[in-house]
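HUMAN: I'm a chemist; might I ask for a sequence paired with its structure tokens?

ASSISTANT:
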Amino acid sequence: MRFRPGASGLALVAVSSLVLAACSAGSLGSSDDAGGGSVEITYLTTNQDQDVKEAEQLAKDFHAKNPNITVKVETRPGGTEGDNLIKTRLSTGDMVDVFNYNTGSLFQAIAPQKNLVSLNDQPYIGDLDENFKKTVTADGQVYGVPVGGFMGGAVLYNIPVYTKLGLKVPTTWAEFMANNAKIKAAGGGVAPVIQTYGETWTSQLFVLGDFHNVAAAEPDFADKYTQNQAKYATSPAALKGFEHTEAVHDAGYENKDFASAKLPDGLKMLATGKGAHYPILSGVVANMVATYPDAAKTVGLFALPGDDASKNGLTLWTPGGIYIPKTTTGDKLDAAKKFAAFVASPDGCKSQNAAGAPTGPYAVKGCELPADVPQAIKDMQPYLDKPGASSLALEFLSPVKGPSLEQITVEVGSGIRKAKDGAARYDEDVKKQAQQLGLAGW
């Protein structure tokens, strides 16, 4: 939500291109709090433009239903700076009343049992997607509600390029590479695979987005990885993500400026047909469509293909979470719980739809995607609907990840380091973090 060595990071950085000043988003409210008096709470979200729009829309729509609670919206940076701010404010007891943060391993790192209010007793918990609940649960207690939709670690592709060349959506890696060969042979200045190493987090997709294929081949990989019994360099399935990163470079399929191009450059290439494939998170689609409206119809999505077409499926990043710190008490706690309940409802999803194109299907029963959602987001739904055709990204199944993956995948994707060497280096990279967590076997 952001793309650091795990996926939560991905989610944050993925869509963030603007740094906005802290802002206030009007009021949200609740008609039946504390004797009918007014209560003010503060909601902290990231400074991405889409997150701010979403917060403002939730503020407006919640207030329309609950006029006696005012929710001020504040913003924070994404990435490591934002992570440190969250941890500092929680540890010093200075956290706002409600905040938006990552799910999965980064959620576990903020000591939820110590710092957050359990939402297990809330009636809507049964309406939350089971995959999502896994990522905000500690010691059997659910601590967060979803904001935003699922994201897919996938390949965005230019539909007109596919139509012109008569290509079919690939379900195996061999078919994907064959498509790339045809695109390169056709010429016309179309890069088969867009890479944007000027923003290093974007280099990780062939590895992190491949986890559905890893899990399909080695169902117990996540557990063994957490226990230091499985490694990227020695697991044939896990190594393939690094090998694919290397193969695309060695075949000359990347755009010429892959080393310096950044996310906006990649989105422009894709939307304008100067690039055919962009391995990336679906969370970038809203920003792309905002800048290139035609891309809503001309850009599609398919899962990163593996070796077995019968097991083809999508690697998922769950939505971010909204949490309430234990420092929120009394009337403010009641108001914060009402706000969380609104977000985790069909009305909350409609409010988010009004703020911009969803990143993917919602994690709340009864929520529907709007009819005019971009094609790339529509393309995600069949993977979620088909049993076994989607898997959580590794970061939601294991707390083990290292800080240097994006630098390593840049090296592998630039021809500087071989795939096996990169995988072995990443295996070393995760050790310190695993030891800091006190995990058995490390």
Summary: The chain has two domains: 7-150+318-370, 153-316+397-436.
